[in-house]
Amino acid sequence: MAEELSVIDLILNASITVQLVMLTLFLASVISWFMIVQRMFYFRATDTAMRVFEQQFWSGIDLSQLFRKGTANTEAGKATVGMENIFRAGFKEFTRLRQQGHIDPDAIIEGAQRAMRVALSREEEQMEKHLAFLATVGSTSPYVGLFGTVWGIMGAFQGLAMMHQATLATVAPGISEALVATAMGLFAAIPAVVGFNRFSARFESLMNKYETFSDEFISILHRQTHSSAAKG
């Protein structure tokens, strides 16, 4: 009866090419998991910060006071993220242009919009971070594993051709070694695909909320600007 080989034995007995394929897939899997965990913490923190900021923003607090509060937190070493960064960028530019005096109200609003678009683009870059890598691992790992399997099976049959008497027991270990590469390819790809789909959905959801907030905030600034201009 043939001795049963463990997965470790199959990996150690595989050819150098197949072992390199397995090592590549293993490293891709480790990096993917690191990025998945990092993205989980990032989106969780962003969601929490957004809910806290929205509660403060819509509580009726004075916008200048809210901006100063964010500045104090920044000076204390507390990082601002997401929606608050968009607010701070728009309100900072809005205040700067208003203090210059004799600037057309529409020009003030356009300046604030530009600043918010820049901040929104930066938040978009932060949210998309690592997603391209997860997509690449998810789409290519099965094919990389399949390459290792095909290469391993080719080697097994080449060795089989040199034997005078071939049985299933003689070829099975070589095929098993090769199939481990396919299994590792799926092991690397499945979490990466799940993570990419989940984080892409969170990205789209947050972007929609950020864009909606930007439009609502601009409407508030528009009313304030034209109200002040009318009084003037």
TrEMBL record:
Keyword Cell membrane: yes
Pfam families the record matches: MotA_ExbB
Keyword annotations: Cell cycle, Cell division, Cell inner membrane, Cell membrane, Membrane, Transmembrane, Transmembrane helix
Keyword hit for Transmembrane: yes
BP GO terms, sorted: bacteriocin transport; cell division; protein import
Domain MotA/TolQ/ExbB proton channel: 83-211
InterPro entries: ExbB/TolQ_transport, MotA_ExbB_proton_chnl, Tol-Pal_TolQ
GO cellular component term, pick one: plasma membrane
Transmembrane segments: 12-36, 131-158, 178-199
Subcellular location: Cell inner membrane; Cell membrane
Predominant subcellular localization, coarse grouping: membrane
Membrane topology, from the record: Multi-pass membrane protein
Similarity-based family: Belongs to the ExbB/TolQ family.
Role, per record: Part of the Tol-Pal system, which plays a role in outer membrane invagination during cell division and is important for maintaining outer membrane integrity.
SUBUNIT field: The Tol-Pal system is composed of five core proteins: the inner membrane proteins TolA, TolQ and TolR, the periplasmic protein TolB and the outer membrane protein Pal. They form a network linking the inner and outer membranes and the peptidoglycan layer.
Record-given protein name: Tol-Pal system protein TolQ
